[in-house]
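Subject: Protein entry, chain in single-letter code together with its fold tokens

Category: Structural biology, sequence-to-fold work with a learned token vocabulary.

Notation: Tokens come from a learned vocabulary of local backbone shapes, not from coordinates.

Start of record: The labelled sequence and token lines come straight after this line.
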Amino acid sequence: MLNRRLALCALTAFMPLRSNFSWATDFERFKLTGDDGQSIQNFRIPSELDPAITPGLIWKGRKEADVILYEFFDYNCSFCRQAAKELDKILSTDPDVRLGLINNPILSLGSMQAAKVQQAVLKLYGPSTAYHFHSALFNQRGQKDGVAALDAASLAGLNRDRVEETADSAIISDVISRQAKLAENLGMSMTPSFILAGSGALGWMGKNSLKEMIISARKCDQVFCR
């Protein structure tokens, strides 16, 4: 069973963070619509807030890829679960897309606990195993928390005790706090949210709209070519 220290550390990391999100004034930088025909809120990402330097990213895709996509997600977000499946398909068919996964556990304390376990898996076993763990956790039914995440680690053949001990550490708490702070500062108030070609986009736009954004990023280095 998840120990008390991990729960308490997660609670500390889950404390609200002061937002510095004051630079964005236009939430319709481009006229983007999702697969459902609804407008997608999108805005410029300032160059000084580079997500690539944030610790604890899980990378999937080759470093030489010509498109870099970042996703901010929560393990208890149903749209994130849907997005995870579609992103995996995109990555498997388009080798020139590189995905960086960033925790934004805003929905519950359980989300924070699951994120800490994920970071422990990354630290102990590396990005490939962490990505497979990430997909497996989304494939599990029910609410995600520390126990569910540790169960997923056990099912994957990972050392449950080592993962739990590492997830309990101050280093992991700091990484999660810094990822959450980045999401807060960028105004990523919805999950999932994305960064592509210098633009932030809130919410799951659907696989077809995302593919069009990727095509535009290649064509004109923006999510929409005028």
User: Anything to note?
Assistant: The radius of gyration is 17 Å. The chain has a mean pLDDT of 90. The CA atoms of residues 60 and 99 lie 5 Å apart. The chain has one domain: 4-220.
